[in-house]
C-alpha cells in the first residue's frame, strides 16, 4: 500500500508533504491547543484517566468495610492486623522478541526482507521504562487482591532497507508504541502477611490501552515512487492474562521489594499498516515501594 522496495536505490524526491503533514504558517497558539484537545490521543488519555479513577473508587469502596471491621490493635496483638498497601512501581518493560511475537504482528511484517517495503530497525529498541501505582487489599493472612495502573512508551527510529533518497540520505520514520495497562490481580503469600520477608505468586486480568504509530517519510509505490511525509496511527483497548511473582521486605508501615510480570495481549490494526496486529505482550521487572496502612 504505502511501501515497497529491492537493493538500496536512490529515489528522485518530489518530497512534497501531503496535506495532512503541512502546518499552516501563522497558526496561533490557541489553534494548536484547540487541535490538541480534539485529538484522538487526548481523548484516549481522558479515557485512561477516567478508568484509573474508577479503579481507585472500586478498591476504596471494597476496602472501607474491611477497614471498618478491623480490630483495634491491642497491646501484643499488633501482628494480627491486616494492612492495606499502596505500591509505587518503577522498572523496565521488555517486549517479546522476534521469534515469539503473534502471527501478523506489524513489527515482524515491517522487518520482512522479502518485502520491497521492509524497514530497518531493532525490536529490542522498544525496551523502555515503566512506572505506576497499585493498591493491595488483604483477604486474610495469605491472599491479597490488587488493582493498579502503569505506563510505558518508546519510540524507535527506522529507515527503508532497500531505498534511500536521491541525495543519498535515508528515508526515515519513527515507530512508537505506548501501553497503559490496568491490572486486576490476586496473589498468594505462602509465608503469610506476618513474615518480614514475603514472597508471593499470582495472576489476573489486564486491560491494555494502547497506541501505535508510524510517522515520518514514506514511499508511495503506487505513484512513481514519490516520497511523502505522513503519520499512520491506531489506538485501541485489549485484554489479556497477567502472571506475576516477587518478594518484599516489610517493616512497620513500609515495604520494599522486586517483581516480575508477564502479560499477553494484542491489538488490531487497519490496512494502512504492513501487518494486521500489534503484539502488546512482554515482561516487566520492577521495584516496589509500599506504604502500609
Low-pLDDT residue intervals, each spanning 5 or more residues: 1-8, 12-49, 51-78
Strand order in space, largest sheet = 2-4-5-6-7-8-9-12
Major sheet characteristics: 8 strands, antiparallel, barrel
Mean pLDDT: 82
How many beta-strand runs? 12
Order of helices and strands: EHHEHEEEEEEEEEE
What class, by secondary structure content? alpha+beta
Globally, the shape reads elongated
Describe this structure in words.
The chain has 293 residues and is of the alpha+beta class. The chain contains 3 helices and 12 strands. It has helices spanning 29-38, 40-69, 106-111, and strands at 9-11, 85-95, 119-120, 128-139, 143-165, 170-188, 197-220, 226-251, 254-263, 266-268, 277-279, 282-292. The model is unreliable at 1-8, 12-49 and 51-78 (pLDDT under 50).
Question: Nutshell version of this structure?
Answer:
The chain has 293 residues and is of the alpha+beta class. Helices cover 16% and strands 50% of the residues. It has three helices and twelve strands.
Question: What are the key terms here?
Answer:
293 residues; alpha+beta; two-stranded antiparallel sheet; 3 helices
Task: Record the SSE blueprint.
Layout: E1 9-11, H1 29-38, H2 40-69, E2 85-95, H3 106-111, E3 119-120, E4 128-139, E5 143-165, E6 170-188, E7 197-220, E8 226-251, E9 254-263, E10 266-268, E11 277-279, E12 282-292
